[in-house]
């Protein structure tokens, strides 16, 4: 970390008021946060526009669903094979390049008469870039924010992502009433260009964390093996990966659940918005009302009970009661504020970018698996039974992972490095 960056971080720790206000007092974080908001908006616009564009061109529900699903599918491949790039190149340069490549892909998709096959290839390319970008950005946060400010900064990044699920797709769909899909893709490309400009002008240049030894692919594979071979890191990765895989089962069966409740599209929207709303509320309350030690203490208990509201679907609740249960599940996700600090402390600094890329890739990939599995099971079982089963099995799995997290942390002394 540069002398200027260290000075910025130390001053931020001493700011009065603390909490999220202290995070926004760090100028470099303001640039990173604004860039994140723009890239999230661009991603939402692109996803909605592509689904509309493909459906209008083909009339195929399968192809329009596939173009959306391609946002999940490449994560595992990219996270394992490209994560080595996150530490062997200066982070600011890599983030700017990722944004520029994403913008170029979206603007190319907006060109009239772009073949359908090219749309799928370009969509896949954007999805391949995403894990590398998010991993590098997450690692960079630890350079500009230290101690509890890093935890709160990560929390703000997640809050933006969850809020986009609540309102982003609705606004994207509304915008496409007036904007042609290809124009919306150009808008999405412009947001990524603005994000690149903010990162280039608003963040400090720092050297690469690791030397370039061997090919990026070989280094990525070796790093994944090393990270998964560490008992503490592996336990924390599983704690990040397992709960979301079961959380999204409810989203995967939301449509048949709302249909069974005769709730219509309004009921479906309410049900889908419940869990991300709970997540935002839980993170904001934990970030503003609790200190670092308290957030550490509640992390494991919250994770342990996070899926019990889903298990309560055994009683076949009404859609409104089901939405309330999903709101509770989302609120329990505040356990991630404790997990953030544990993970960054467990990972060697020179591997931080690769670890964050692997973490993000695992979350997205297993979410795709969970959503697909939930949809397949809903073909055979009632939707409320599928959600209940996910809650029960997920709770059992999480309890096993929590034992590993607790056991590997017994000799770890928490506290900012």
Automatic annotation (TrEMBL):
Pfam families: MFS_1. The keyword Transmembrane helix applies. Keywords: Cell membrane, Membrane, Transmembrane, Transmembrane helix. The chain crosses the membrane at residues 31-55, 61-82, 117-135, 181-199, 236-258, 264-286, 298-315, 321-338, 358-378, 384-402. GO terms for molecular function: transmembrane transporter activity. It is a multi-pass membrane protein. It is found in: Cell membrane. GO terms for cellular component: plasma membrane. This is MFS transporter. It comes from Microbispora catharanthi.
């Amino acid at each position: 970390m540069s002398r200027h960056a260290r000075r910025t971080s130390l001053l931020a720790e001493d700011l009065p008021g603390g909490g999220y206000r202290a995070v926004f007092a760090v100028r470099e974080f303001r640039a990173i946060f604004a860039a994140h908001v723009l890239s999230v908006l661009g991603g939402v616009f692109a996803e909605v526009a592509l689904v509309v564009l493909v459906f209008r061109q083909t009339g195929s529900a399968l192809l329009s669903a596939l173009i959306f699903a391609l946002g999940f599918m490449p994560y595992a491949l990219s996270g394992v094979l490209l994560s080595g790039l996150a530490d062997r190149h200066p982070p600011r340069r890599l983030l700017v390049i990722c944004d520029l490549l994403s913008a170029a892909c979206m603007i190319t998709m907006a060109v009239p008469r772009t073949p359908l096959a090219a749309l799928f290839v370009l969509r896949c390319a954007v999805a391949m870039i995403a894990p590398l970008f998010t991993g590098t950005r997450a690692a960079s946060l630890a350079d500009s924010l230290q101690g509890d400010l890093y935890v709160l900064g990560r929390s703000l990044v997640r809050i933006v992502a969850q809020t986009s699920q609540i309102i982003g797709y609705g606004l994207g769909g509304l915008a496409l009433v007036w904007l042609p899909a290809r124009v919306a893709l150009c808008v999405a490309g412009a947001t990524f260009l603005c994000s690149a400009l903010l990162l280039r002008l608003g963040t400090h240049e720092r050297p690469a964390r690791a030397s370039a030894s061997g090919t990026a692919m070989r280094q990525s594979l070796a790093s994944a093996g090393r990270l998964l071979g560490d008992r503490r890191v592996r336990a924390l990765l599983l704690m990040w990966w397992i709960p979301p895989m079961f959380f999204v089962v409810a989203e995967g069966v939301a449509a048949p659940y709302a249909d069974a409740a005769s709730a219509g599209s309004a009921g479906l929207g309410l049900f889908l918005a419940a869990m991300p709303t709970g997540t935002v509320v839980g993170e904001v309350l934990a970030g503003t009302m609790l200190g670092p030690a308290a957030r550490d203490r509640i992390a494991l208990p919250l994770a342990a009970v996070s899926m019990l509201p889903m298990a309560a679907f055994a009683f076949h609740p009404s859609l409104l009661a089901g939405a309330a249960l999903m709101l509770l599940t989302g609120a329990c996700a505040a356990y991630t504020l404790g997990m953030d600090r544990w993970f960054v402390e467990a990972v060697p600094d020179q591997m931080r970018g690769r670890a964050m890329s692997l973490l993000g890739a695992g979350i997205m990939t297993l979410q795709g698996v969970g959503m697909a599995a939930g949809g397949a099971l809903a073909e055979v079982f009632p939707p409320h039974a599928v959600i209940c089963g996910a809650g029960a099995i997920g709770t059992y799995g999480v309890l096993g992972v929590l034992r590993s997290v607790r056991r590997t942390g017994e000799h770890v002394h928490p506290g900012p490095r």
